[in-house]
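Input.
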Amino acid sequence: MNKRVLVGMSGGVDSSVAAALLKEAGCEVIGMTMCFNIAHRAGKRPSCCGLQGIEDAKIVAAKLGIKHYVLNFAKELDEKIIKNFCDEYLKGHTPNPCVRCNQYLKFDILLKKALSLDCDYLATGHYARIVNDNNGFLLSKAKDEHKDQSYFLYRLKSKKLKHILFPLGNFCKLEVRDLARKYKLGVSEKPGSQEICFIPDDNYRNFLLGRLKDKIKPGDIVDKKGNILGRHKGICLYTIGQRQGLGIARGYPIYVTNIDAKHNRIVVGKKEEAYSKKLIVKNASWVSSISRPVNKRIELSVKIRYNHKEAPAALERLQSNRVKLIFKKPQFAVTPGQSAVFYDKDTVIGGGIIEKVVA
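Output.
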């Protein structure tokens, strides 16, 4: 390709293989790892950007014969990601920090760094594809539907996509492992990181308890009629659809159906009460001006969280950059704070943050 590419290297197998593929393709590759000052806890699966990740990235870069740098993002992580993470939980929402990390850190600060170094592209190990057609650069699902990460990337716009590469978009995970062995990379068998990077022990409740301290207040657990059934330990420690840890026996399974931050209450009910058909999405973002709906109402497939199966819904554009979604069938545990992402087959049209459920 004879292009200069900055590769975001986390020290994992995916970003390492992405760098190797680009080097093999003839690119001038520069590796850069974001440091978050996160220590790996012994016995736990390593986080993607912990200290061990930095060391692994350095070793891979040396193996590939490419330059490698470390950029300290600890301040930006705290200001852009962790603060929002905590604030949202205090509001009774369940945020998705990976979406914000991609929006504000990887594909904003790191992308700007790549361009400042006269790089043509920023590349990462994400499983997604970028398609350049007559309508410009569009975001599409990866070949490996089980690893597809387009959900986390929906806030990327066409003007940024033209400077981004996803080398793994046409590979499945097993193929990536095989490539890592082919290139003799020491991370070929390294397990993938599946937790939030700044919570290495995968226990967000302990993280919130340590971070928020006196801001967490206990309160009542009630049914939809307002009858008090028990006590909760703080609304930030619960999420919509939760069944375990409620400490209430009713003779049938009960679930969290609503979190009322204004009155510091957790509302519970039967599973059918946790289904919703209509919701409002705020901060709507469209991949391109072409993909932005012109008509007031269109039909799309929507994911209301990463592991949720896409479901058909009617999309109605509202004022103030909001969207109303009306699903054909009610969806379980629609959760304010999570992202709703809109798809037209394999193409990401856009998405936004779930604001509330409506009747």
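The chain has a mean pLDDT of 93.
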